[in-house]
Amino acid sequence: MSFKSSLIKIVIKLTPNMLIVWGANFILKGIAELLEFNFDLDTRKVYVKTRLYGEADSIEICLEDFAVFNDGESYRFILHQARSDRPWLNNILARVIGKAWKIPAIPQLAAQLELIAEVFKAKPPALEKIAADAPVQ
Length: 137
What we know:
The protein is of the alpha+beta class and 137 residues long. It has one domain (3-133). The chain has helices spanning 3-14, 17-27, 87-96, 110-119, 124-133, and strands spanning 32-40, 45-52, 59-70, 75-84, 101-102. The protein has a 5-stranded antiparallel β-sheet with strand order 1-2-3-4-5. Helix 1 crosses helix 4 (110-119). The longest helix has 12 residues, at 3-14. The two termini are 28 Å apart.
């Protein structure tokens, strides 16, 4: 693991969730309000509770076991588990999970994408499963 990726992991772990909620609410003003946020880099879990602008009820989303990896030709993103408290959103997530989605190659961002893949790399057993099972998009 490189020094840069180690530093990024430390910064992610030390960033207060309230700072992320405040920043997201500033950016999403008039669209949505982020009510709760939790990101655990070690277990690869993200929990988000949000309320869309003008709606009374909130939406909860939990993403688990995700990774960015290089398959030799391109970088890909994979999400192994996702769930929500909304049936329609679960139906959308069901179409996304388990597929290795190709990340478009942008030459100017190649170094950053390599760093992101190092920070969010999959564990070796997961990579083997991806190579054997995942359909290519």
